[in-house]
Amino acid sequence: MAQQKIDLEHLTEAVKAVAREAGGFLRSERKSFDRGRVEQKAAHDYVSYVDKASERMIVARLHDLLPEAGFITEEGTGAFGGEEYCWLVDPLDGTSNYIHDNAPYCVSIALRDRKEVLLGVVYECCRDELFWACKDGKAYLNDEEIHVSRVSELDQAFIELGFPYRAEDYREFALQVVRSFYGHVGGLRLMGAAAAELCYIAAGRFEARIEAFIGPWDIAAGHIILRQAGGRMTDFGGSPECLDAREVFASNGYVHDEILRQLRTQRDLLGEGQEMDK
Ligand code: IPD
Ligand code: CA
Questions:
Q1: Which ligand is nearest to the CA of 210?
Q2: Is the separation of the CB atoms in 90 and 107 below 8 Å?
Q3: Section 29-55 average pLDDT
Q4: Cα(194) to centroid of ligand 1, in Å?
Q5: Residue 172: CATH number of its domain
């Protein structure tokens, strides 16, 4: 078995500083943001010079912290060549929100070894909220411990939906999800920044989140933060192996099984798209 060679607590402190630095950069660039320099990667999937600069800065800082680790990043800076450790980085989650000067948007950084995610840090820039957790530890918002809500009634559940860019593959499923939950749950919301939204469940603000066709950089940090706060994340079939899966259902745990029952029956409406690139 591989030996734990790194001091996770120490490393997490350093990663928190990196996330805050990148978040400060995003906030300050927003003041003079040039919409003319936004590019389209795929239909309605955008990237700007700010995403790219934020990623270059984060990758340089993380490389200094742990030179032996590889990288899987949304905008392709750095590379993963089978190293024991790997950083998963979204330098700006909520790019469309950012472009439209809408909240929330955040920086998401996770570190995994060959077996599991070891630490996760999400910095939500608009509310100046730093969420973080390490394997076997507690989950925090700034310096306060956070926990999922104990809401167990579907009728009370406040649920976040994610609409991935791959509309053709997701449309029928999304419509069915809205049809079955709208009017039967505490509320449905679309916020536009998956990493922050997972943290909102961890902090007890929401009970669940449903999306598919999403990248590991969007969810790795939020996943460990949610788990250490008492929550649960699976695919729509209930498998916990969902980090690289195309389906991601996160919850406070208490409403999980009941919502899963409904998702399982709707699952065959998902398109046949390939799994997300890693
Ligand atoms: C997106 C956001 C959005 C989610 C998309 C993601 P990006 O990430 O998290 O909420 O619905 O699936 O791709 O492009 O803003 O980094
Ligand atoms: Ca992004």
A1: 1
A2: yes
A3: 93
A4: 6
A5: 3.40.190.80
Task: Give Dmax over CA atoms of the chain in angstroms.
Answer: 51
pLDDT digits (tens, 9 = 90+) for 220-231: 999 999 999 999
Cβ neighbors of 144 (< 8 A, separation 6 or more) are none
**Cα-to-centroid distance, 158 and ligand 2 (Å):** 25
For residue 121, is it within any domain?
A: yes
Q: Is residue 275 part of a domain?
A: no
Global pTM?
0.95
Instruction: Give residue-wise pLDDT tens across range 116-135.
Output: 999 999 999 999 999 999 99
pLDDT at 273: 58
CATH number at residue 99: 3.30.540.10
Kindly report the three-state secondary structure assignment for every residue of 228-247.
HCCCEEECCCCCCCCCCCCE
Nearest ligand 1 atom to alpha carbon 92:
16
| CA 202 / ligand 1 centre spacing (Å) | 18
Token pair listed for 160: 């976040």
- Spacing, Cα 156 to ligand 2 middle (Å): 31
Enumerate residues lining ligand 1, CB below 6 A: 74, 90, 93-96, 162-164, 192-194, 211, 214, 218
User: Which of 39, 58, 213, 218 has most ligand 1 atoms within 8 Å of its beta carbon, as the pocket-test mutant?
Assistant: 218
**Residue 164: which residues within 8 A CB-CB, separation 6 or more?**
170, 211, 212, 213, 214
Ligand nearest to the CA of 195: 1
Last residue of a domain, one of 102, 123, 145: 145
Is there a single domain that holds both residue 235 and residue 211? yes
The residue range of the domain holding 186 is 154-270
Q: Token pair of 136, please?
A: 């076997």
Cβ atoms of 110 and 243 within 8 Å: the answer is no
- The CA 215 to ligand 1 mean position distance, Å, reads 8
